[in-house]
Amino acid sequence: MSFHAGRWGVILDAGSSGTRLHIYRWEDPAKVIKDADYEELHSLPKIKTKKKWTKKLRPGVSTFGDHPEDVGTEHLQPLISHALDVIPESKHADTPIFLMATAGMRLLPDLQREAVLNQICSYFRENTQFALPDCNLHIQVIKGETEGLYGWIAANYLLGGFDDPQGHSHGKNHHTYGFLDMGGASAQIAFAPNATEAEKHQDDLKLVRMRTMNGEPTEYRVFTKTWLRYGVNQARERYVLDLIDSYLVAGEHEVPDPCMPLGLRTTEMGEVVHGKSSELQLVGTGDFQECLRRTKPILGDEKPCETESCLLNGHHYPEIDFDVNHFVGVSEYWHTTHGVFADKGEKVYDYNTYQKKVEGFCSQNWRDIESTIESRKKDHAKDAQEACFKASWFISMLHDGIGIPRVGIEQTLTPDINITKGIGEAAKEKGFLEPFQAVDKIDDIEVSWTLGKMLLYAAGQVPPQQNAEHLPVGFGSNVKGVPGDFQHAGSNWTNIPYDGDYDDWAEDLTEDLVDHVKSKSGSGFALFILILLFVAYIFRKRDRRMRLYTKVNSIFRHHHHRRPGGSRKGGRGLSLLTSKFFGRGSHQYERVLEAGDAAQFELGDVDSDEGDYSDSSGGSRVGRTSGLATPKLNIESFDDLTKSAHPGSAIDRSGLVVRTESRERLVPQMLSAGKRSRAGSPTRMKSPLMSPLSED
Fold first, then answer.
1. Residue 693 near residue 81, CB atoms below 8 Å
2. How many CB atoms lie within 10 A of CB 494?
3. What is the dihedral of CA 175, 176, 177, 182, to 10 degrees?
């Protein structure tokens, strides 16, 4: 395997309840192409990310509408500092930065929204050297349909349907998966209709164009729709208002709420009421069937359908063929099925089983429920308090609104067809054969729409095929060529220099080995040291060799100190063993470390998991790590690129995918990245972000 130049990308998902920083990395396409094998050439760019490359903060940027000048210092600073720490400084100018806001910012007045966006762009430009050539492109409020489309791209990329269409065949020449997302303020759907529906609804579809590593364009036709105010928080607000209008009696202050456990009392805003109170309060009755009846009207099913087929709220859409359209649900679809009601190890959603669990839980007395969560985090109580309404809204949206069949109760639209016939082996292995399945991660990577955005950006960096029509990467109306509303990926295929890249990939290798060896001893650790010697040889420059040595030596010493019966003098072994590779003075660096020179250490990040906030339902999952940051490795890993090949075929524009030539197609790969801009941007030395930041 060869190693190439690394690209980075930064994207902040500004949701209604908080902002989530995502950092992605991929190899420079121009370098990969030079010695890529067949599978790599016929796959999309391979993108990687890590949990420690993310950071989450609350509340959302939309809360700065009336004081936008504070959004940088009071909200963005910790996120940007984290990105500056993760991405090598030499890569900053070539790293694009995006902030894309969703439902929360869509609800702000126009003037406030523009003021917040302008302040964000100014803050990025003044405090980083990241590539930000166009504020309108990089800092924006995206439409719900765009959010859903990015999510569809991310899910199918991780599942492998793009690179291995035959392996993920669901029958009827269909190989992609549908996508459902629900946050706190909005909900989205995106799917590629079957060939018949795609032909009938060409004007309702979006054209999505990407580019594989050989420069060949790939095109998909996707239907996407968003419902603002159909996220769980907004739906709950509408439900409570309707409840009060229906049941509040003049002179009284209590309103029965069937969507709360028996005996639970809360304010209109959801705060638990303790003791006697004369303020308006909701009183749980624990009647889930009544909860379902009260929730369903919020869908807006009473609105007339003026066309042949409609989704909830009277919206026209292509009919969903559930024989081939298998949906994955993320965000609240995942939390609502795998939070309070999930059994350990349970993966597949089953309507009957789920409803029985919900009914049993919601009929309990709140005191009994509360007693089981006293020893847990406070947020678990919040989850339990909201679980019944969320479950009711989930069922209403999924089955009554979108029409997902209740497996075991309702038949699919074409029950005479054997849906397992023609199913690809990869699809069977993934297990996504039911009409709906909730997911959080796929192959340990979070299913986030931000990944879809970065995949488009990375694909836009792939050089197009020579002597072929140059079709840009991005999406727009479903017409041939480049539609007038086409939204470009925002990237190009300019090469970047190799400086520092061997350092990048070697550190990737080192960290993967460290993670593996931590659970090993004896011969495993000896093998690790031998491989590190080879890595050190690659570091021809002395400063690179010494930097790696410093990191590896600290691991070596830690490894021996933590072993039962280990001796402190074991830490000297690496110095004696590696002096020939790292230089004659290697032992001097070890003495510096023993003396406690902090400059030789790289402080590890404090993992402050402050909730799942990007347009989430309210950030109820809070995890904190207390204590000081301790020295640790901060190195990246790389992935195995070997996959198996499968042949595919081209389809016309009304179908699901068009490729310019037939070929074998393969398994999932990942993203690509940035432009150089603003040579005169302020340096980090001038930035106020360089002051130490405290972690909660």
1. yes
2. 13
3. 180
Does the annotation place 112 within a ligand binding site? no
Q: Nearest Cα to 98, choosing from 449, 442, 477? A: 449
| pLDDT for res 34 | 84
pLDDT at 628: 32
Domain boundary among 384, 401, 418: 401
For residues 692 and 477, is the Cβ–Cβ distance under 8 A? no
Asked if residue 365 belongs to a domain, the reply is: yes
Q: Quote the distance between the C-alpha of residue 30 and its chain's center.
A: 26
Is 36 a known ligand-binding residue? Answer: no
**Euclidean distance between CA atoms 188 and 225, whole angstroms:** 6
The label of the residue with tokens 């030539």 reads: 661
Q: How many domains does the chain have?
A: 2
Please give the single-letter amino acid code of residue 264: L
Residues 12 and 20 sit within 8 Å (Cβ to Cβ): yes
The HSE-up count of residue 443 (CA atoms within 13 Å, CB side) is 18
Whether residue 507 sits in one domain with residue 396: no
- Among candidates 162, 38, 149, 151, which has minimal Cα distance to 659? 162
Backbone angles phi, psi at 77, to 5 degrees: -55, -50
Return d(Cα 58, Cα 580) in angstroms, integer: 51
CB contact set of 276 (below 8 Å; sequence gap of 6+)? none
> Where in the sequence is the domain holding 522, given as residue range(s)?
501-594
Position 271 pLDDT exceeds 80: yes
Q: Torsion over CA of 422, 423, 425 and 431, rounded to 10 degrees?
A: -170
Q: How does pLDDT run across 331-379, given as a tens digit for each residue?
A: 999 999 988 887 666 667 889 989 999 999 999 999 999 888 765 566 6
Is residue 512 domain-shared with residue 387, that is, in the same domain? Answer: no
Q: Please choose, from the candidates 390, 183, 438, the residue with its C-alpha nearest in 3D space to the C-alpha of residue 292.
A: 390
59 preceded by cis ω (within 30°)? Answer: yes
- Domain assignment of residue 585, yes or no: yes
- 295 in a structural domain: yes
Task: Tell me the β-bridge partners of 254.
Answer: 281
Give the Cβ contact number of residue 410 at 10 Å. Answer: 15
- Residue 460, CA atoms < 13 Å, CB-side half-sphere: 21
Q: Is 186 annotated as a binding residue?
A: yes
CA distance 633 to 51: 15
115 in a labelled binding site: no
Residues in contact with 421: Cβ distance below 8 Å, sequence separation at least 6, in sequence order = 171
Instruction: Name the residues annotated as catalytic.
Output: 147
| Distances, alpha carbon 347 to alpha carbons 363, 381, 434, 440, in Å | 25, 24, 12, 11
Is 381 in the same domain as 252?
yes
Do 422 and 171 form a contact (C-beta atoms < 8 A)?
yes
CB of 93 closer than 8 Å to CB of 677: yes
Residues 518 and 374 in one domain: no
Q: Residue 616: what are its φ and ψ, rounded to 5°?
A: -85, 180
Q: Domain for residue 533, yes or no?
A: yes
The partner residues of 188 in beta bridges, in order of sequence, read 181, 226
Q: Of 594, 619, 640, which marks where a domain is finished? A: 594
Q: Between vectors from CA 247 to CA 245 and to CA 250, what angle results, nearest 5°? A: 85
pLDDT in tens, 162-197: 988 777 877 787 889 999 999 988 999 999 999 999
